[in-house]
Design brief:
Layout (H helix, E strand, L loop, with lengths): L12 E6 L7 H14 L4 E6 L6 H4 L8 H5 L5 H4 L1 E2 L5 E3 L13 H9 L10 E6 L5 H9 L2 E6 L3 H18 L3 E9 L2 H18 L3 E9 L2 H9 L3 H4 L4 H15 L11 H13 L6
Parallel strand pairs: 1-5, 1-6, 2-4, 2-5, 6-7, 7-8
Antiparallel strand pairs: 3-4
Helix pairs in contact: 1-11, 5-12, 7-8
């Protein structure tokens, strides 16, 4: 797997992984994409932005001593919270079962994102695992990211809710391009049919572009690796699911980073500052 790609150079590429509903494997996608990119030699930061129901640490077999809750409370810095995960992933864990973390206001979110400006850890790619749906935290992190990867599966509710998420982001933030990944599909044809259905709906009601990023097949190794608390791409490197994530990672490598992005994470702060000034996310 280490020959998939060469390490990315500056500036940092930020990808928010989101979904319209839970249960589509969004966090599994975020974890395995991060592991694939890291194993290929990239400096990867994986942020658990499902702030109230975090579980990235569980999937990675980690036991964090501190979480983002303590950063919000001013008890420590992001550097204090960050821990090393498999393949050298830099992981920033969030709290689980803490309601106030799921209901941050704009000031608290701005403070959290401003904390990234203090990080000195080299980063090529930042993967953000958002909460599912259109809660304000999810919309905020998606709008702050360069790329939004929408995960869907063969479930009518998943497709309907993915459309709703895209619509809200488009109308409230002006984002007009989204990446779509079909997860747990039984065939490439089935995945393309799911994508085509979502595309038809968006073409009918919205002025957005949807880029098909491929399919992650239904694979028993995914469930096995979850029980083992390891990314499937590391636990079963020769499986179909590992091959699919290699293809996805190669695709991510070709996504162009906006020229206004810097070599660290200042662009992340600039994006949020711009959003706050224009009021794009106010009242989400």
């Amino acid at each position: 797997m280490s020959a998939v790609m060469q390490p990315m150079s500056s500036p940092v590429k930020v990808v928010a992984v989101t979904s319209g509903k839970g249960g589509v494997g969004k966090t599994t996608v975020a974890v395995n994409l991060a592991a694939t990119l890291a194993h290929a030699g990239n400096n990867v930061l994986l942020l658990d932005a499902d702030l109230g129901l975090a579980n990235i640490d569980v999937l990675l077999g980690l036991t964090p001593e501190r979480t983002l809750q303590e950063v919000i409370d001013g008890a420590c810095t992001l550097a204090d919270v960050m821990i090393k995960g498999p393949a050298g992933i830099n992981v920033i864990p969030a709290a689980s079962g803490v309601q106030k973390m799921a209901e941050l206001d704009d000031l608290e979110r701005n403070g959290l994102l401003a904390a990234f400006d203090e990080l000195v850890t080299p980063i090529d790619v930042m993967i953000i695992d958002t909460a599912a749906g259109i809660a304000s935290n999810s919309m905020y992190f998606c709008d702050a990211s360069q790329e939004v990867l929408v995960v869907v599966c063969d479930d009518p509710a998943s497709i309907t809710d993915a459309y709703a998420t895209i619509k809200v982001l488009n109308r409230r933030t002006g984002r007009d391009r989204f990446r779509v990944l079909v997860n747990m599909a039984h065939s490439e044809r089935a995945a393309l049919n799911i994508y085509a259905g979502l595309l038809r709906t968006c073409d009918r009601y919205l002025d957005v572009a949807l880029d098909y990023c491929g399919v992650i097949p239904y694979c028993p190794e995914a469930a096995k690796s979850a029980r083992q608390r390891r990314p499937a791409v590391l636990a079963y490197p020769h499986s179909r699911i590992a091959g699919s994530f290699k293809k996805l990672a190669l695709g991510v490598d070709t996504w162009k980073t906006p020229q206004w992005a810097s070599g660290r994470l200042e662009f992340f702060i600039q994006r949020i500052a711009k959003t706050t000034v224009v009021g794009g996310m106010a009242g989400v």
